[in-house]
Amino acid sequence: MARSQEYEARIQQLNWPDLKKLWVAICEGQTPDWPDGRAFEYLILRAFQLNGVEIRWPFSVKLNKEIVEQIDGTVYVGGLSCLIECKDSREAKSIEVISKLRNQLLRRHGAAIGLVFSRNGYTGPALTLAQFVAPQTILLWNGEEIAHCLARETFAEALILKYRRHIEQGIADYDIRVEEIV
């Protein structure tokens, strides 16, 4: 069995309480059975899946038999088609992650949006850049929001809220914790 299939099988055995425990382990750097960053990617996708959302696990995109992109996954919810990028690192993410996802979105239908999940947030320049990547939409999620969504088991609803606030206010990093998700 390929490694990615092993990860999929392993994460699909987890329910909400298990994901919450895995999140704590990720934050503590205690995921020895997972390669760096992989547990975080699969946790995010599994959380959306538990909300009844259609997902696609991480995959590679080939062009002329060469891998040109590594996609951390996709989610399809409420009419939104989203490319996922997950960054599990000890430091805030810089503009490179936003630029990479923007380039991936440029190759896709204009309705596709990007979601970046960073356990430790973003640098000031990254936050600024995310506001100006139009016509692409990239929504930023930080570790506190991820913990909030895990506690409430509301990833799909949080995505819809974050997207709506982006449409209304043009904020790429709208903090979903300030509103009650219904």
Strand-pairing-aware structural class: alpha/beta
- Strand % is 15-25%
Spatial ordering of strands, largest sheet: 1-4-5-6-7
CATH architecture: 3-Layer(aba) Sandwich
Question: Might you state the CATH topology name?
Answer: Trna Endonuclease, Chain: A, domain 1
Give the terminus-to-terminus CA distance.
Answer: 40 Å
Could you spell the SSE succession in H and E letters? HHHEEEEEHEHEHH
Helix content: 40-55%
Query: Can you count the helices?
Result: 7
Describe the structure.
This protein is of the alpha/beta class and 182 residues long. The chain has one domain (3-178): Trna Endonuclease, Chain: A, domain 1 (3-Layer(aba) Sandwich). The protein has helices spanning 3-11, 16-27, 38-50, 95-106, 124-131, 143-152, 155-169, and strands at residues 54-56, 59-63, 66-71, 74-77, 80-87, 113-118, 137-142. A hairpin with a 2-residue loop joins strand 2 (59-63) and strand 3. It starts with a helix and ends in a 13-residue tail after the last helix. The mean pLDDT is 93.
What's a concise summary of this model?
With about 180 residues, the chain is α/β, with parallel strands linked by helices.
Lay out the secondary structure.
Layout: H1 3-11, H2 16-27, H3 38-50, E1 54-56, E2 59-63, E3 66-71, E4 74-77, E5 80-87, H4 95-106, E6 113-118, H5 124-131, E7 137-142, H6 143-152, H7 155-169
Parallel strand pairs: 5-6, 6-7
Antiparallel strand pairs: 1-4, 2-3, 4-5
Give a quick set of tags describing it.
five-stranded mixed beta sheet, alpha/beta, two-stranded antiparallel sheet, 7 helices, 182 residues, 7 strands, Trna Endonuclease, Chain: A, domain 1, globular
